[in-house]
Amino acid sequence: MTNEELQSIIAAGLPCDHLELTGDGRHWYATIVSGAFEGLRSIQRHQRVYATLGARLQTDEVHALSMKTYTPAEWAANGAK
Question: What residue ranges of the chain have pLDDT lower than 70?
Fold first, then answer.
């Protein structure tokens, strides 16, 4: 899977103000900013992202995804790193 493909999949299932991905095609690191994360705990945010990937995690198309998730307000407060 390419960076562009993974970005498209996540963005299609979750409105993102910012989405940054790095990885080698199987192991990925993401920074995701979304208003959909408002009021959610970290694990719930991750579950929302995993839901966009569906079976791709179970079929090992995406082997690993590490992520930092922020609301727009949190992102702004952290200096939009």
Answer: 79-81
